[in-house]
Amino acid sequence: MVGRARPDKESTVDKLADHGGPIISSVVVMPIFWGSVWSSGDPQNRAAALIDDLRHLMQGPYMVGLSQYRDIQAGTIHDALFDTTSTPPATFSLSDLASYVSGLIAGGRVPDFRLNSQLLYLVVTDGGTLTDNTSAGGFHFWSSIDRQTFHFAWISNADSYIASHEIIEACTDPEANGYTQPENGIEVADICEDNSDAAGDADGVVAASYWSNRDSRCILPRRVAGIDVQMDDCGVGPAMGEVSELRLSLSADPAWIEPKLPPMLMPTCKWTFDPEFVTPLTATDGTVLVVRWAEPVDIYSTRITVTVTDLEGLQITGSRMITPRTPTQAAIARKSCEIRRWLASVNRIPPFFVHKLGPDPASLPTRREIERLARATERLSAGVEALAELRRRLDA
Ligand SMILES: [Zn+2]
After folding, report:
1. CA spacing 20 to 30 A to 200: which of 208, 260, 280, 328?
2. Are 118 and 27 in contact (CB under 8 A)?
């Protein structure tokens, strides 16, 4: 007896353990561009791009996956400080960075963490080597003023991938006693940094993927655009020469973050397709597109793409390859659906008849199946005639 397939028992791999120390639950990132190099030319553009990228990451789904860790929320990006009054040395230690940040706090040049415990000072240098870990491109750490702890990070380039890595690790483990892997102390993004998908596109920004206990995998939270294709009530989909409705569907990866995402602000759509195979019957900028599929010359597959853009410039693209059925394939699928339903509606018909034509939506019945159905139907039909004759005799 074949039953309904049951999903595998859910197994989770909790690589990250909560050691109970502080976390940053709603970070305020304070970017500090250290050195006059950041105030002109290409570095200035890179600095501006980083700020823009980080704002996008904070507003989008990226941080939402962290809500599984003591409900960490998306944060904000404070207006940056461009510090042209000093130049970072070629090599520096964590303690040098801590002194540098302490000096800025003492001088009132950056907001004071004693007034906002969510502050994360993000020092950006153009290159430079950290003596504590010479291979590091970024690091996050903590220090204190008057025995009060502040959190800071350093990145060696205005790079959204390195910055996102350090920011999410500072949020989940600012003082090395928050969320880490118990065996080796490595953090939420470290677990994923050797994977091929360590860096990816999160709503248009390159960011670091990170470990999710809830999903038992590395995630890069993002919105996902999909295309739903209209089928008829027999489950028969696009067919050559026919008209279909295509509908934008928005979701997220991982799916569980979707209800926690803010809606996109006034999203607009743009559909693209190959006009050789697809003729639009409605405007190509709505959430729904009605199309006519080209008449058959040969079997063809064609890609439909939809790009959604919102008011803030967030852009998501979804696409789908579609192979319309030939008119004959569609006609067979519909006819067998019709017969199957008719048979199913007749009381006490042997399941054989119905099952010969498969489930809804049906795969195309083979020639042999149709022949067997024809023979069985002939016998049934002869039987029904005989039955009717006997009934008439009885009534007479
Ligand atoms: Zn790390």
Report:
1. 260
2. yes
Q: How far is the CA of 187 from the centre of ligand 1 (A)?
A: 6
CA of 162 to the centre of ligand 1 (A): 9
Tokens of 340: 């199957």
Predicted TM-score (pTM) of the model is 0.78
Report CA(171)–ligand 1 centroid distance (Å): 12
Rounded distance from Cα 298 to ligand 1 centre (Å): 54
**361 in the same domain as 246:** no
Residue 5 has pLDDT above 70, yes or no: no
- Residue 378 alpha carbon to ligand 1 centre in Å: 73
* Chain centre distance of CA 39: 35
Distance 377 CA to ligand 1 centre (A): 70
In a domain, 9, yes or no: no
Distance between Cα 199 and ligand 1 center (Å): 13
pLDDT over 60 at 84, yes or no: yes
Q: Are residues 192 and 96 in the same domain?
A: yes
Q: How far is the C-alpha of 161 from the C-alpha of 322, rounded, in Å?
A: 35
Q: What is the pLDDT of residues 167-186, one digit of tens each?
A: 999 999 999 999 999 999 99
C-alpha of residue 190 to centroid of ligand 1, in Å = 5
Domain span at 391: 328-395
Task: Give the model's confidence band at 362: pLDDT under 50 very low, under 70 low, under 90 confident, else very high.
Answer: low
* Protein residues within 5 Å, CB atom, of ion ligand 1: 169, 190
Q: What is the DSSP string of 186-243?
A: --TTGGGTTSTTSEEEETTEEEE-EEETTTTEEE--EEEEEEEE---TT----BTT-E
At residue 298, the pLDDT reads: 85
314-356 confidence digits (pLDDT tens): 889 999 999 999 988 888 888 888 877 777 666 556 666 666 6
State residue 356's pLDDT score. Answer: 62
Interval between CA 145 and ligand 1 midpoint (Å): 25
Residue (of 333, 369, 329) closest to 353 by Cα position: 369
Q: Write the CATH number for 254.
A: 2.60.40.1080
Q: Tell me how far apart the alpha carbons of residues 362 and 334 are, in angstroms, rounded to a whole number.
A: 9
In a domain, 254, yes or no: yes
* Residues 308 and 372 occupy one common structural domain: no
Together in a domain, 231 and 212 = no
Distance 186 CA to ligand 1 centre (A): 7
| One domain, residues 115 and 233 | no
CATH of the domain at 153: 3.40.390
Per the structure, how many domains does the chain have? Answer: 3
Q: Which of 219, 241, 263 is the last residue of a domain?
A: 219
Q: Is residue 8 part of a domain?
A: no
